[in-house]
């Protein structure tokens, strides 16, 4: 499958245009853990329920395919900060060969997509952001509210763009980069985002290829051993993947010749459930509840148009 190299996976699913049939939604609900099914069912809006369901199916498909764990034996849990991890089985390799490098994986869903990034032997964080106009304020007012999220240098880059839409695109690009790093190191809201500063390459970011020339400065010093892959799923959705040393004590610099960054592969619903097997009995009321949900807020006052937030 495209979107994969040895030890790397980059998958995306377009939740925004997914209109599941009754049989698809009920089958999907049977293929996730009961507590996840219940959590997904509690979302007020269908858009959020679809994003969360797609995220769980992406994770299970990845564990099943790349870690070779049968679907019914996969047990996913969440860290205190909400980051998913494989709770069981704890051992996913045979005794005959050497122990493989551990996989790290991360999910994000925002705008119209859910994305998964996974790599062996590295810390991984992924974040996706959709460029949209602020719902309740002007762009300058929105930037004023968000002033503390970026350094003076980053704001100079963001505000140097020629139009408000391009300034917003630069804002969300920087936001996705910062979030990807925070998610990779597993630090929550207490992290001061001004400690991290990104320096973008002069090469423009386009939909047809991924870039990995962006540099990160942490506490005003360039971090040589972190790689940031950037790509665009479409004209409005930026994705950033942070790749760092698996062991925080490992300060070996990244290789001078970087591997080619991988573009994301768009999966269909059929791809998501290709390896799936039901874990529970069918629950017809789950479809009835889903059909009652409004697709999205009347006015898009969700993470697309207020303070950026992604899972």
Kindly list the characteristics that best describe this protein.
311 residues, alpha+beta, three-stranded antiparallel sheet, 8 helices, 13 strands, globular
Overall description:
The longest helix has 22 residues, at 164-185. A hairpin with a 2-residue loop joins β5 and β6. The strands form four sheets. Strands 1, 2, 5, 6 and 13 form a five-stranded mixed β-sheet that branches. Strands 7-12-11 form a three-stranded antiparallel β-sheet. The chain has a three-stranded antiparallel β-sheet with strand order 8-9-10, with helices on one face. It has eight helices and 13 strands. α2 runs antiparallel to α3 (46-66) and α5 (152-159) packs antiparallel against α6. It is of the alpha+beta class and 311 residues long. The chain is globular, with a radius of gyration of 20 Å.
Set down the secondary structure blueprint.
Elements (H helix, E strand, L loop, with lengths): L3 E2 L2 E7 L7 H9 L3 H8 L4 H21 L8 E4 L5 E5 L14 E8 L2 E8 L1 E9 L8 H7 L6 H8 L4 H22 L10 E4 L15 E4 L2 E2 L4 E8 L2 E9 L19 E3 L1 H4 L11 H8 L20
Parallel strand pairs: 2-13
Antiparallel strand pairs: 1-2, 2-6, 3-4, 5-6, 7-12, 8-9, 9-10, 11-12
In short:
The chain is of the alpha+beta class and 311 residues long. The chain is built from eight helices and 13 strands. β1 and β2 form a beta hairpin.
Helix content: 25-40%
Number of helices: 8
Low-confidence stretches: 249-253, 301-307
Cα gyration radius (Å): 20 Å
Chain-averaged pLDDT: 88
Summarize the helix and strand pattern as letters. Answer: EEHHHEEEEEHHHEEEEEEHH
Biggest sheet character: 5 strands, mixed
Secondary structure category: alpha+beta
Strand content: 15-25%
Question: What is the count of β-strands?
Answer: 13
Distance between the termini: 25 Å
The gross shape turns out to be: globular
């Amino acid at each position: 499958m495209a979107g994969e190299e040895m030890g790397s996976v980059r998958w995306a699913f377009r939740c925004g245009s997914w209109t599941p049939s009754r049989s698809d939604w009920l089958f999907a609900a049977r293929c996730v853990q009961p507590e996840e099914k219940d959590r997904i069912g509690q979302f007020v809006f269908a858009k959020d329920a679809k994003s969360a369901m797609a995220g769980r199916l992406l994770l299970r498909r990845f564990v099943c395919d790349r870690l070779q764990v049968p679907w019914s034996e996969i047990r996913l849990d969440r860290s205190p900060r909400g980051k998913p991890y494989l709770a069981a089985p704890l051992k996913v390799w045979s005794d005959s060969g050497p122990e493989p490098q551990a996989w790290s994986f991360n999910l994000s869903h925002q705008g119209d997509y859910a994305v998964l990034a996974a790599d062996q032997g590295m810390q991984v964080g992924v974040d996706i952001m959709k460029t949209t106009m602020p719902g309740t304020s002007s762009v300058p007012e929105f930037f004023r509210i968000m002033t503390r999220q970026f350094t003076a240098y980053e704001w100079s880059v963001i505000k140097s763009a020629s139009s408000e839409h391009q300034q917003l695109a630069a804002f969300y690009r920087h936001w996705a980069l910062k979030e990807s790093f925070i998610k990779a190191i597993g630090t929550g809201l207490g992290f001061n985002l001004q400690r991290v500063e990104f320096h973008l390459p002069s090469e423009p970011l386009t939909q047809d290829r991924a870039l990995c020339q962006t540099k990160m400065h942490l506490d005003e010093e360039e971090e040589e051993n972190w790689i940031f892959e950037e790509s665009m799923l479409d004209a409005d959705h930026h994705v950033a993947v942070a790749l760092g040393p698996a062991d925080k004590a490992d300060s070996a610099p990244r290789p001078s010749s970087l591997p080619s960054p991988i573009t994301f592969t768009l999966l269909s619903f059929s791809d998501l459930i290709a390896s799936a097997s039901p874990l529970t009995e069918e629950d017809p009321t789950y479809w009835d509840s889903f059909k009652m949900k409004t697709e999205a807020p009347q006015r898009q006052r969700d993470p697309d148009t207020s303070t950026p937030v992604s899972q």
